[in-house]
Structure formats: C-alpha cells, structure tokens
Amino acid sequence: TIVFSGNLLLSEEKIKNKIGLKSGAVLNEVSLALTREKILRLYREIGYFNAEVEFSVTGDAAIPLNKILAIRIEEGKQAQIKKVLLLGFGTLSAAKMKQIIGLRPGASLNISLLKDRISQLNSYLKEKKYYQVKIFNPIFELLPSQEGINIYLAAHLGKRIIVEFSGDLGFAKETIQNALSPETLSEDPMGL
After folding, report:
1. Which residues, at least 6 apart from 125, have a Cβ–Cβ distance to it below 8 Å?
2. Per residue of the chain (192 residues), what is the pLDDT tens digit?
3. Residues 129, 133, 136, CA angle at the centre, nearest 5°?
4. Contact 99, 120 (CB under 8 A)
5. How much is the CA Rg of the chain, to the nearest whole Å?
6. Taking Cα atoms as reference points, which of 36, 45, 37, 35 lies closest to residue 10?
7. Residue 80 and residue 21: Cα distance in Å, rounded?
C-alpha cells in the first residue's frame, strides 16, 4: 500500500502514474531513490525546485507483501524568476522574445508551459524568415535562497532566408511558395 501526505499541488493519481510504483513492488534503496527523483522532477516542472520527499516503510517484517510505503512531500515555495538572459538572438528585440515566452522577473516558473512557449517562439522566428533556427534547452540556475531562479535561453538563428519572385517562373507562384514553405526550408534549404 502507498500513502501520500503533503501533496497539495499534485494529485496522488498524477504522482502514482509518474513514479510507476505498484502495491507489492520490491522496495530497496535504488527503487526509493528513483521514486524520489521522479517526484522531485514533477515538482520542478511546475517551478517547485526546493520540494523535499521523505519515505517511511512500516508493516510486519514476517509478511513481505504487507508493507505500507508512506511518502511525505514538503512542496516548499514556487521559484520566482529573478533574471532572464537571452543569448544568440542577434538584433531581435529581447523584450519581444521575453513577451512570447512569457518570462519576466517576479513571475512564477512553469517548465511545461515554458516548453510550449519556446515552440511558439520557434514559430515566430520562422515567420521572421529564420527557417533554420535552433533554440536550445533552457538552463536554470537556482539561486542560493532556493526561492529565485535565473533562466538562460540560447538560440542559433542561422541565416535569414528571404525569397522574392519576378519574371516568368515556369510554375504558378503558389506552387513555388508551397515548395519554399518554412517546413521545407527548415528541413533542407539547399535541397529544393
């Protein structure tokens, strides 16, 4: 049997699905360490970097399958963004990039939402003709107080590709535009 306490933000169901422990599972130092890491990862995804997890196992030692695993979670405070540093975005407006990804000092960090916003930023950059853009995974620096976090987001924009049409092209303009879509150019700009 598995019993949870202290988990106000995440449901028992969500945690159980993530950790994969079932009643009757073998409990040892390795399985408990993996379980702790999976729970902490769940909390980090929603910005709780200083969450703590403790275990206690009770039950009759003579009956191996009659154990109770108590998982006590101390969620702590959600980390607040202190600084956002963007690298490799060239002359593009840092304020616009931060607006798209929704990062600003004092805001709470939600990594799942940040991943979606980075995808939106990627689309925005492709609209700006940076078809080969590569945005790297953000780096999070937890400050010593463990209540603040600095975020570093780097990108490689690649070359900006602008295509103009003129004269008799031998194909309909729409056919050429479809062949030069952002998807085609980001996959293989020279293999048109």
Report:
1. 92, 133, 135, 155, 157
2. 788 999 999 998 999 888 887 766 777 888 889 999 999 999 988 888 889 999 988 876 666 667 788 999 999 888 889 998 999 988 888 888 888 988 888 888 888 888 899 999 999 998 888 888 899 999 988 888 767 889 999 999 888 777 666 667 677 767 766 666 656 655 555 544
3. 155
4. no
5. 24
6. 45
7. 32
